[in-house]
Amino acid sequence: MGMSKERDMLSYDDYHIPKVCTNCGGVMIFKGVGEYQCEDCKAVDYDDYGKARLYIESHRGATASEIEEATGVKQRTIRHMLKEGRLEVTQDSKMFLRCEVCGKSIRFGRFCPECEINYHRHLEEKQRQKNIKMQGFGLGMEESSGEKRFKRDR
Ligand SMILES: [Zn+2]
Ligand SMILES: [Zn+2]
Questions:
Q1: Number of structural domains found in the chain
Q2: pLDDT per position in the chain (154 positions), as tens?
Q3: What is the rounded distance in angstroms from the CA atom of residue 61 to the CA atom of residue 57?
Q4: How many Å lie between the centroid of ligand 1 and the Cα of residue 24?
Q5: Which of 9, 27, 52, 129 is buried deepest, with most CB atoms within 10 A?
Q6: How far is the centre of ligand 2, averaged over its atoms, from the C-alpha of 78 (Å)?
Q7: How far is the CA of 25 from the centre of ligand 1 (A)?
Q8: Which residues surround the ion ligand 2 when the cut-off is CB under 5 Å?
Q9: Ligand showing the shortest atom-to-Cα distance for residue 18
């Protein structure tokens, strides 16, 4: 795995998983979709994913900054979850995820459908050129810098 891949990933700690019950100190058990429950007093708590998800469910159309304000979940984490497809912006949302190429609002992922297609066309074209130039002079350096531009976070 390359460096850029690693930089793109958040560790589990970044989701602020509740491990100890704030009520009684008991062990928090994972219940699914970001929800945890104390095995002793049954108190329920959420990690960042659960908090953001819950908030979006009851506040459709919330922006990342509104979610951050209400839940304390960092916008960076929210955007990351959107990119990973763990969260999806609702249809009626004031979009807050943008295509990394053209800036158009998107619901999930990193590119809008058109740029996604263009991106693949671009890669295919690069590959074609590479195949042609392989015999003569290499295009290796240019290729890798072009890829980095697409992978750069935020
Ligand atoms: Zn407890
Ligand atoms: Zn786009």
A1: 1
A2: 444 444 455 565 578 889 999 999 999 999 887 899 999 999 999 999 899 988 988 887 788 888 999 999 998 888 888 777 777 666 555 546 778 888 887 777 778 888 888 888 888 888 888 888 766 555 555 554 444 555 545 4
A3: 9
A4: 4
A5: 52
A6: 20
A7: 6
A8: 99, 101-102, 104, 112, 115
A9: 1
Ligand minimally distant from the alpha carbon of residue 150 = 2
Contact 10, 16 (CB under 8 A): no
Ligand 2 centre to CA of 119 (Å) is 9
Q: Report residue 52: phi and psi, to 5°.
A: -65, -45
Q: Residue 135's domain spans which residues?
A: 3-151
Interval between CA 83 and ligand 2 midpoint (Å): 14
Instruction: Tell me the whole-structure pTM to 2 decimals.
Output: 0.55
Structure-block tokens of residue 57: 């469910």
Can you give 101-150 as a three-state secondary structure string?
Answer: CCCCEECCCCCCHHHHHHHHHHHHHHHHHHHHHCCCCCCHHHHHHHHHHH
